[in-house]
Specification:
The chain is an all-alpha fold. The protein has two domains: 299 residues, Citrate Synthase, domain 1 (Orthogonal Bundle), CATH 1.10.580; 115 residues, Orthogonal Bundle (Cytochrome p450-Terp, domain 2), CATH 1.10.230.10. It has 20 helices and two strands. It has a two-stranded antiparallel ribbon with strand order 1-2. β1 and β2 form a beta hairpin. The protein starts with a helix and ends in a 9-residue tail after the last helix. The model has no long low-confidence stretch (mean pLDDT 97). The structure holds acetyl coenzyme *A and oxaloacetate ion. The site of oxaloacetate ion has 6 residues, from loops. Acetyl coenzyme *A binds next to loops. It is an enzyme of class 2 (transferase). Belongs to the citrate synthase family.
Length: 441
Amino acid sequence: MDIIKERFKAKADAAATEIKELLKEHGSKKIGEVSLSQVYQGMRGITGLVTETSLLDAQEGIRFRGYSIPELQEKLPKAKGGSEPLPEALFYLMLIGELPTEDDANRITSILQRRSHVPNHVFAAIDALPITTHPMTMYVVGVMALQTESVFAKNYADGLSKKDYWESTFEDALTLIARLPRIAAYIYRRKYKNSEHIQPDGLLDWSGNLAHMMGYDDESFYELMRLYMTIHADHEGGNVSAHTTHLVGSALSDCYLSYAAGMNGLAGPLHGLANQEVIKWIYEMQKEIGSEEPTAEQISDYVQKTLKSGKVVPGYGHAVLRKTDPRFTAQMEFGKKHMPDDKLVNTVWKIYDTVPPILQSLGKIKNPWPNVDAHSGALLVHYGLVEYEFYTVLFAVSRALGVLASLIWDRGLAFPLERPKSVTTQSVKLWLEGKDEIWEG
Ligand SMILES: CC(=O)SCCNC(=O)CCNC(=O)[C@H](O)C(C)(C)COP(=O)(O)OP(=O)(O)OC[C@H]1O[C@@H](n2cnc3c(N)ncnc32)[C@H](O)[C@@H]1OP(=O)(O)O
Ligand SMILES: O=C([O-])CC(=O)C(=O)O
């Protein structure tokens, strides 16, 4: 057995024993109360999931196994000559719970390189779609076509024992992660570059290869991809893409089925699609104003117009965060280092100065600060990656690292089917009248 798989198994067994003890002693402790409003309002603030890979603090932002983004940038192994973390190293951290050595990170890189071959029928499935199809639809179709390769599905059909679920899931997760850059790059080159495809470079790391296959062979773009793939990888368990992957996975759907389901959620404009919406919104503003460099006053007027027309300001607000997203800040730092004079990047910074007080003044928006999606597109445009409908695909490639590490943990801990209770408004009214027995069972 591969050493990383052995390490995971040892960690998962120890954690399972610990959780068993913990629940034996504390299982009946109450962790909170649920109000009727919460049930109607997207379950905001209800703790109801266990996700081991990362934890979100409303003020501080995300920590991956306890490490903040600046700490990851300092402590995770880097590519040769690079200064951003290798996302493969973050995957190891999320999976094993400890910082990897350089050897550990290289081991993941080489496993992914070895498994990166995508069967032809996946490309044929993508090619069968009209060229006008949204890249996220092509991507999910590609992932679904790849489901023919699921070891878990095959082994389950052959009578796999419960105690071995984790191992087939581990294998599927690594194979799927290995193949995603090729699928993403294929879609990019098919839709935007006349189907002139670029073969993988066996010597490059996972993100470097993605950049290479998309046609961006520039060391500073490789660095952007490493940072991008690291910071978008995970955001604890309750966000739509992670929660969906976990929920669908709880039915013992394999990695391919579960991840594809999660990415359909990422493709929604209130979640991952917001990254394309931000750039679209800025372009529309520039067009209306007739300038590439809107003033603070022009931005302010445009925000008011957006709000008046019943639309959200994309890239701002968050269901949990109550401060500027540290993923926004990490990208701002990257911008300051690599492209301080870029006009679009400077516009993103000016929007950051202008928008929060306006949103705050409305009184109803709980978080007026920018999230990760407010910044990512402008960095990509700087390198010529202007096709903003593609941006969520990059987010999806990264998100695979977190949600699939979590799915391996779900199997390692033998988590059960997820099935919360729902109610009807009629039943709520009966409950309010004191006929509460309908809520039982
Ligand atoms: C990777 C990610 O998924 S990060 C999020 C990406 N999404 C976006 O950037 C889209 C813009 N933002 C939003 O729509 C929201 O802030 C969300 C979906 C992220 C969070 O939603 P919620 O937790 O419901 O936010 P909140 O409790 O603050 O919402 C209260 C009200 O403010 C509105 N609001 C929240 N953010 C914004 C915004 N950026 N622009 C305008 N109105 C907003 C909500 O639509 C809601 O209005 P309503 O009462 O009329 O229905
Ligand atoms: O946490 C959330 O709800 C949304 C988010 O920022 C993410 O998934 O990256």
